[in-house]
Specification:
Layout lengths: L5 E7 L1 H4 L9 H11 L4 E7 L5 H6 L1 H6 L4 E5 L2 H5 L4 H17 L4 E4 L9 H7 L2 H9 L3 E2 L22 H25 L1
Parallel strand pairs: 1-2, 1-3, 3-4, 4-5
Helix pairs in contact: 2-9
Length: 191
């Protein structure tokens, strides 16, 4: 029996939304295509909004829940770090977001990010462990650092040097694909 198509909510900021890209180059579209090429029937929903923080995500979580996803890819933190939000505040809001999603028994893939070097060592040392700490606390699969897949490579970024270009999105989607497939397998095993 063929498993039903999986609905994946890609929930995050500009890195999810596809800032500066054509709509068909955004991460959810690219991931949907890659999963389909692997034989996984799926729909990836784009809940990325440029400039959003964990707090903004929490404010619009009901929209995501109303879409009735089977899986959530949670990708926030870049804007929290750029605005130098206190790490304790980021963690508190991230926990509320995760707990709301888990309250609906939604499997989550947590996508981490590291603070840019210009934020200073002291802030970076506090910020960077947030995601591994949350993943351990809530028993979530973690993709440790989205920036590792494209950041610092001018062939993979837009002119701003911060956001991935179409090739950068492909690189990220390719790297995250096995993590998403694993999460989908756990969902389909329940059905």
């Amino acid at each position: 029996m063929t498993p039903p198509p999986v609905r994946i909510a890609c929930f995050g900021d500009s890195l999810t939304e596809g800032y500066g890209l054509d709509p068909d180059e955004a991460f959810p579209v690219v991931l949907e295509r890659m999963l389909a090429e692997e034989g996984v029937q799926n729909t990836c929903l784009n809940f990325g909004v440029s400039g959003d923080t964990f707090e903004d995500g929490l404010a619009r979580i009901d929209t995501v829940l109303q879409a009735a996803p089977d899986v959530v890819i949670l990708e926030f933190g870049a804007n929290d770090s750029f605005m130098a939000y206190p790490v304790a505040q980021i963690k508190t809001t991230a926990k509320q977001l995760i707990e709301r999603l888990q309250g609906y028994s939604l499997p989550i893939l947590l996508v981490g990010i590291t603070a840019p070097p210009d934020m200073g060592d002291a802030y970076k040392q506090k910020f960077d462990p947030i995601f591994s700490t949350l993943a351990r606390q809530y028993n979530l699969p973690l993709f440790p650092d989205i920036l590792e897949t494209y950041f610092g490579d001018s062939s993979l970024t837009l002119l701003d040097g911060m956001h991935p270009n179409a090739q950068g999105v492909e690189a990220f989607a390719h790297a995250v694909l096995p993590h998403v497939q694993k999460l989908i397998n756990t969902v389909q095993a329940r059905i």
